[in-house]
Amino acid sequence: MRKPPYDIVLKPYGKALLDLAARRPEVLCLGADLTRQTETDLIRDQMPERFINVGMAEANMIGIAGGLARAGHTVFVNSFGVFCTRRCYDQIAMALAYPKLNVKIAGFMPGVSSPGGPSHQAIDDLALMRALPNMTVFDLSDATEISQAVNVAAEIQGPVYLRLKRGEIPVIFGQDHVFDGRRAHVLARGSDLCLVASGMMVPATLAAAEVLEREGLSVAVVNSPVVKPLDARTIIEAARTTQVVVTAENHSVMGGLGSAVAEAMAEAGLGARLVRIGLQDCFAESGSREFLFEKYGLSVQAIIDAAWHALRPGTPVPKAPPQVSEPGTYAPV
User: Is there a domain that residue 121 lies in?
Assistant: First the structure.
C-alpha cells in the first residue's frame, strides 16, 4: 500500500473495459452522451462496433441494455452516477434487477466530487442500488481496484453498480491487492478504534488513522469496496474488540455504507459506539472537491475529530498535517 500523495493514472476503467471487450465478444458498451467523461471514448474509437451512444436518454439506455442482455450480451452502461441511478430507477428495478440480467452500470462522479450542485451530485446512489434485490454494489477507491472490478463485475451473474471517481485516479494499492467482489480488506488492525471506509474516503481514512496512531490510539482500518453484499464478517471481526466504529463515505449517511455497517453491528450484537461520516441528510452546494469535502465534514480532520471526540472527549483534538499534492499526484483533503 502506497503513501500519499498518490501517483495518478487516467482512464483505468476505460482501459479495463477495452481489454475485457477484446477478450469477450459478448461485451457491449452503452453511453448517454457522456463518452469522454466516462472513459468510453477508448472503446468507441478502437472497437466502434461494440459501442452504442443512445443520447441523453438514460431510461431508454437501461431498456436497451436489458434487451441486449436477454439476447446474450454482457452490457456495460455508462453515465454520471446521479443520472444512471436516480433518473432511471424504475427501469433498473424492472428491466434489470427483477430479471437479474447481466448489465453493469458504471456511475461516475460520486457524491460531492462533482462541482455541479445537487443536480449532478450522486449522494443517494448507494442507498438506491442497495435497496434493489439481485443488485451488487461496488464503491471503488483507486485504479487498482477499478481495473480488477471490471473483470469481476463481468463474471457476476446479474446487475452490478460500479461507483467510480472521474478524472485523475489515485493508485493506492499495489498489484498484490486482490479485489474479489465479496470481501472487505483489513488494512490495519487495532483495539481502540475501527475506521471503515469506501471509495473516495479511503485515502482520507488512511491519513486520519496515521495521525490517531501517532497520538497513541490503536486503530483498525477496513476498506469496504463492496457495499452490497457487505462483508459483515470481516468488518465485525475487525471491530469486535474496539470501543468505537467510524464509517466514512462520500454519500449521505442515509442508506449507504454507514447504514449497512450499522445493520451488521446490530445483527451481530456488537455494542461499540458507531459514528457515521458523510453528508448529514442534506443536499450540497456547488464547489470544488476541496471546498465541499471540508464544508460537509468529509476531510481527514473531520474523521480525526469524530474519532477523538468519541474516545477522548474533553481533550485537545490532534490536528492533521496539510495534505499536499504536487502536479500529477492526488492527496485527500
Answer: yes
